[in-house]
Amino acid sequence: MLANRTRALTLAITLGFAGGSCAVAHAPSRNGDSSNLWEKMDDSGKFGYILGFSNASENYQMVLRAEREGCNEETKAHMTAFLEDNPISHTTLARMKSLVDEVYEDPRNRGINLVFAMQIAGLRVAGRPQSEIERQLQQMRQLTTKP
After folding, report:
1. Is the pLDDT of residue 19 over 80?
2. Which residue has the higher pLDDT, 48 or 33?
3. 85 falls in which pLDDT band (50, 70, 90)?
4. Within 13 Å of residue 50, how many CA atoms lie on the same side as its CB?
């Protein structure tokens, strides 16, 4: 059950990286106490989570490669760009852990879903502009404050 939920969340976030998809995917907007979950994990738990997230992302990349041919040109281009510049595959587990830790160090990010925190870490690894990262964080914060 948890593995299926993790795969579904990873799929939704990966599609966010890709900028769209041929199918519609919805990620849950809330995860009650994600930062608390992260804070409660020891380092081996955090590294295990990151490794699992990374493995799921790599598995989904195989799906993207197979499915992108059936998509429109714009979506196909987004998928190709994602596959060529997947930030998670360009860094270490220690760096990802450090970046997720940084996300949750800001009290405004306490309620952000752990999968979304991984997305922010990926944006930082990819060298995305701080303005883009702040825009994403603001959207994520809004999701955590909605009733």
Report:
1. no
2. 48
3. low
4. 26
**Are the C-beta atoms of residues 89 and 58 closer than 8 Å to each other?**
yes
Question: Which residue matches tokens 């760096």?
Answer: 95
**Tens digits of residue pLDDT in 106-123:** 999 988 989 899 989 988
| Tokens 């990374």, located at residue | 54
Q: Looking at residue 52, what DSSP letter applies?
A: H
CB atoms under 10 Å from CB of 59, counted, come to 13
120 in Cβ contact with 55 (< 8 Å): no
Q: CB burial class (10 A; 0-12, 13-18, 19+) of residue 40?
A: exposed
Closest CA to 98 of 79, 84, 82, 117: 117
Q: Tokens at residue 44, please?
A: 């081996």
Six-digit token string for 116: 């979304």
Query: pLDDT by residue (tens digit) across 123-133?
Result: 898 888 999 99
pLDDT of residue 65: 81
**Nearest-angstrom CA–CA distance, 77 and 53:** 24
